[in-house]
Structure formats: structure tokens, C-alpha cells
């Protein structure tokens, strides 16, 4: 569905200014091939990260950052709230919004693959104050996801035993995150590649499991098929009876989908450290979208096939905060069918999924903070990188956010998880709204400055309508997320606070930066479409592929690259 146009070296023809003279390029050919050289003439601060992530790393990072416990466990809440048909419809519909957002993000990022791209685009294409608010919103979102997955890891480990204290588990995982993310970026890429590959295999395995057991391949010999869509039914009522109750059930599933389904932002965040980005990134955006859509749509369908929405075991697991994957519809189905051993295997794989997702959030949060520093919207001290190109202070700050997971020491882990979900859902939707807004301004600037989109390395379909579609959907859902607090008898200070905090904080950040820095909205004909472009062009012109170290790595690069 998405159109890609690149020449053999990954450069769009006849689009950009000529590359800078040799004396303006810092370092040797090899250095350029692995680093994005700072443009001193443009006045931007130097980006010292290294381009070490291969195509196969980028392909799997999108999956690794998106698929965590929300897909395997929390999806069961959607089934309880809306029923199988509502869950399936909600996830399918939300994937269309993700497609629109992916096309917006891919077109901008493949043209200018720099560190923290869509955060910096918000300031360049709309207003610097808009970029400031958007950047800090995304950082808070990603940083808050770290303690979310830490809390989930603790829950999963306690599925087997309570011998290890909560604080001990959190501390151990934080140390591992620190080691992985403070080493060279290729170590992060390699770790995430294998963890994401495990998620991929688990999803495929669970989908195959669903098909086999529904046609009778289970210890009970029960060919249940789509039985639970008829009894107890395809839709359930939430808060009210009748049509209103069924609509609210569907709406709750749509809110669940808006939190669970993501993907393009994690691919985009790796753009500044990707090898040969003009070639690698278009393929990655396409592949990640189609894979994730297949997984989420089929996964939501599988959940509704395996378990009825009124299952007592699953309802009790969520209400009591049962440890591990006990609340997972897949584990519940295995217990219903008297299948042994598999629940433990699923729990172990979900643990790796949670760990991998948290690892991705540490990476994305640290790079978003680094991107803010590059644009002068965060302290310059955060630009400090190790010799391996890792922004060390940014990583350390993100790891400090992980300490919030210790909240579960004095509160139920299930309660803490619900707090983080409410906070992050709004932030993610704000981020997607920002991306679509930035794209619409970029689209207008291209048109005003006479730049043909046919010459871009990547051209999305249905534009600018897809941009407007994504913006309207995400903007509306941002305010819908915490609607339950306004229903009679459902008021909760904590839910209201976590659902609407970022909706209030972002405008404040925007206004403060606009007043202090006296920024202005950029006119379409004045938007700078060439900033940092010379460095990208120079890198592409001097790009030397990194050869595989051995036959095994060559096979991996061929399969997943």
C-alpha cells in the first residue's frame, strides 16, 4: 500500500542541494559511513551517535518496542469489557489509524533520517514551542513505559515464586537495562533483535495453537470453533444495559487498542543510528506495519475464539492482580482445556517480551531526550556521548525513571499498572497527533516550495487525507481515554489525574516556551526543508556496507534485512 522510491544508493534524485565541500566534512570516509556529521554552517549542535544498526535490527526493533504484556495479558481486559466482536472490530479499526500515522512518519523520516526525527520535525515544521511540548511529552511517555514493564516483569516472575522480593527484581532488571544500553548501540540492537525474534515466534505459535485447539486438537477433543461468539455472545454490555452498554464496551476496546497498538515511532527513533537509512527505513516502515497489523488483528480475533467474555477465571485474575500471565486469555484457555506445561512456557516467553519492551523504552526515551538537547530544548550537558556513541547522561536519567516501579512495594502491582496505562495512553495519542500535524505542515511546505513528492525516497498514499484522518482520530481519542470518571459512581481522582495530566501539561509547555523564546508559527514557504540534509546526503554518498562477520550473521541479515 505504501510507495517507495530510491535510487541505487538510497538517495532521492534531483531533490536536494549539492553535498558540502570535502573540507567541510569532518573525519574520514569510514567515520562518515558510521556517523552523522554535524553541520557547523547550519548552527546545529553535533550529533555524536553512531550509525551501527543494521537492517535486521531496525526491522525487529519496531516489533520489540510494541509487543509487550499489553498484547499478551492486558488484551484480556478488552475482552471482558466489550466481548470478542467489539475487541476484533476495535483493533481492526485502530490499525487503519496506525497506517495513516505510519505513512506520515515514514515520508518525513526517510527524507531526513536524523536522531529523534519526528520530535525535531515538530519544531522545524510547525513552531519551536510546539516541538518543545511534543518532545517532552514523548520523553515522559517513553520514560513512564520503563517502570510499567518493570512492574509487569515483577508480576510475571511471581507467577512461579514469591521468594525474590519486589525490590530485588526491579533492581536486577534495572542493572541489566543499564548494561545493555550503556554499551555500544549495536549491542542494544543485537539484544533487541533476539528478544523480538522470540516475540515473533511466540505470536506465531499462539496463533497456530488457537487454530489447532479450536478445530478439536486439544485433550478434551472439543471442536468449539466460534462457539463463544454465540454463547455468551459477540458483544457484552459495560456500565449500562442495551445499545448504550454495548457501545461503551466497544469504546473501551478502542481505548485498549489505542494503547496496545503502536510501531512506527520505534522504527523512526532508530533512524539516526541506522546504516544506509534511505534504503533501510522505507522497507522497515512497510514491514513493521504489515507484521504488526497481522499480529494485532489476528491476535484480537484469537483471544475472542479461545475464551468467553464472561470467563470467571480471567475476571478473577484481573480483579485480584494475579501474578504473571495468569490473566492472559491464552493461559486461561490452556487451563480450560487442561493443557499442562504450555502455561509455564507462555509465561517465560511473556517475561522476555516484557523485558524486551522495557529495554526498547530505555533506548527510545534516552534518544528522545538526546534529540531535545540537540535542538537546544534540554541542557547541553546531555549531549555527552561515550566513545561508542551512547548518550550516557540521557540513559542514566531514563534509568532513574525506572525507580518509579518501586511504587508497587506499597501498592498493588495491578493498581500501579493501571496508573501507568492511563498516563501513557494520553501521551501516545498526543504524540501521534503531533506527528500528523507536523506532516500536514511538511506537505504544505513541499507544495509551497515546489518540491514534488514523486522525488521523495518514500511516498505514502492517500495524502494529505491520511494525515487528517490520523490527526482527527488521535485527537478525539486523547480526550475519550478517561471518560469513565465522568459516569455516575465511577469518579476516581487517580484515574482522572493520570488520564488527563499530559493533556493539561502539553499546552502549558507550549505557552511557556513560546513566551520565553518568542517563537512564531512557521509559514509554509519559510519552512527549512534542507537543514541537516547535506550530512545525510554525504553519508549516503560515502556509505560502505558493513560485511557480515560470519556465515550465520549473513543468513540472519538475508532473512531479516
Automatic annotation (TrEMBL):
<feature type="transmembrane region" description="Helical">
    <location>
        <begin position="390"/>
        <end position="410"/>
    </location>
</feature>
<keyword id="KW-0813">Transport</keyword>
<feature type="transmembrane region" description="Helical">
    <location>
        <begin position="416"/>
        <end position="444"/>
    </location>
</feature>
<dbReference type="InterPro" id="IPR004840">
    <property type="entry name" value="Amino_acid_permease_CS"/>
</dbReference>
<feature type="transmembrane region" description="Helical">
    <location>
        <begin position="465"/>
        <end position="485"/>
    </location>
</feature>
<keyword id="KW-1133">Transmembrane helix</keyword>
<feature type="transmembrane region" description="Helical">
    <location>
        <begin position="315"/>
        <end position="333"/>
    </location>
</feature>
<feature type="domain" description="Amino acid permease/ SLC12A">
    <location>
        <begin position="57"/>
        <end position="523"/>
    </location>
</feature>
<keyword id="KW-0812">Transmembrane</keyword>
<feature type="transmembrane region" description="Helical">
    <location>
        <begin position="491"/>
        <end position="513"/>
    </location>
</feature>
<feature type="transmembrane region" description="Helical">
    <location>
        <begin position="200"/>
        <end position="220"/>
    </location>
</feature>
<protein>
    <submittedName>
        <fullName>Amino acid permease/ SLC12A domain-containing protein</fullName>
    </submittedName>
</protein>
<feature type="transmembrane region" description="Helical">
    <location>
        <begin position="135"/>
        <end position="160"/>
    </location>
</feature>
<feature type="transmembrane region" description="Helical">
    <location>
        <begin position="166"/>
        <end position="188"/>
    </location>
</feature>
<dbReference type="Pfam" id="PF00324">
    <property type="entry name" value="AA_permease"/>
</dbReference>
<feature type="transmembrane region" description="Helical">
    <location>
        <begin position="58"/>
        <end position="75"/>
    </location>
</feature>
<dbReference type="InterPro" id="IPR050524">
    <property type="entry name" value="APC_YAT"/>
</dbReference>
<keyword id="KW-0029">Amino-acid transport</keyword>
<keyword id="KW-0472">Membrane</keyword>
<dbReference type="InterPro" id="IPR004841">
    <property type="entry name" value="AA-permease/SLC12A_dom"/>
</dbReference>
<feature type="transmembrane region" description="Helical">
    <location>
        <begin position="87"/>
        <end position="114"/>
    </location>
</feature>
<feature type="transmembrane region" description="Helical">
    <location>
        <begin position="288"/>
        <end position="309"/>
    </location>
</feature>
